Amino acid sequence: MPPYGDEMRPNCSSSSACPANSSEEELPVGLEAPRNLELVFTVVSAVMMGLLMFSFGCSVEIRKFWAHIRRPWGIAVGLLCQFGLMPLTAYLLAISFSLKTIQAVAVLIMGCCPGGTISNVFTFWVDGDMDLSISMTTCSTVAALGMMPLCLYLYTWSWNLTQNLTIPYQNIGITLVCLTIPVAFGVYVNYRWPKQSKVILKIGAIVGGFLLLVVTVAGVVLAKGSWNSDPTILIVSFIFPLVGHVAGFLLAFLTQQSWQRCRTISLETGAQNIQMCIAMLQLSFTGEHLLQMFNFPLAYGFFQLLDGLLIVAAYQVYKRRARNKLRMGRPGCAGVRHDGTLRGVNAVLEGTEETSATPDSLEPEGLRAALKPVGHIPSCE
Q1: In the chain, alpha helices (H)
Q2: What global pTM score does this model have?
Q3: In which residue ranges of the chain is pLDDT below 50?
Q4: CA-to-CA distance for 236 and 110, rounded, in angstroms?
Q5: Rounded to the nearest 5 degrees, what angle is found at the Cα of 58, between the Cα atoms of 194 and 132?
Q6: What confidence tens digit (pLDDT) does each residue in 44-69 have?
């Protein structure tokens, strides 16, 4: 691996005279698309994040949300994944694939970014813990104020990097505003109008998934001029989010989190804030370097979306098959017992921490049947 720092010039000051920060700098051919991409991501992402977080805030219950804050074990595991596993994974990938300096720095910056809003969409579709998901996204964004510069310093220290990396504090602040204010309104709506909030949540999840797909496709199309023929960076961008999902799930499982929390932490770990990575690259590097760096966050965003869709599809198929097998039980079963058992299994599949305290669902026999493997058909003696 080449000695890091030889390929890049140091970033000067934040003045407009600096080539890296001048808006008048003539961009190389192929970077007009990333400029358009910046405008698309800035405007659309802000609106999308606000609407999404408002709709997802309608799923937040104050009691459960406060429980996560009061006993932040799940949040702590998530932050360890976000700023422990992801930067380490980025560093190991850069070393293992012998990436060029400019590419390695882009991978590391992505690994040090906080979680993205896309994780909240995927968490909803896998019946994850929405309270934990929103808490983790917010807390990781706040922690990024200190953890991003710390992680970047620790991992670039051995590279002798001469380039000054500029942390996008303004972008982090905007992200926090787009997170907290809409969520607060959503929590209020859920408190005052719980029935209407469920409708808003479902609409927001569907619209959010569609908007994420549109933004990803638009980003790839607009930035097609910045893609290069280097297959190594595409391989890394494919492996990186996948490793994040698997590592996050394993760490959550080893720390004895519930299945619902394991799914949530897994999705939060592999989903990074792409816009924040792009903002930091633009603040820190010249147009010549950006031409070589933009392809990684775009490719990462594409594979991040693809991995999430595959996880959601696999979970929904499993969930549907499990319910169908239960409905095909013996016809002689009593309706009350079958309904109680079905509700119990749905609670297990959806990972809910609490089940309804009805006499049918709390029957010892019903609970034992609910906890049995999916393929088992309860007997009806």
Answers
A1: 32-57, 62-70, 73-80, 86-96, 101-112, 118-125, 130-156, 169-192, 194-222, 231-254, 259-270, 274-284, 287-293, 295-327, 335-350, 364-371
A2: 0.75
A3: 1-33, 331-345, 351-381
A4: 12
A5: 125
A6: 666 777 777 888 888 888 888 788 78
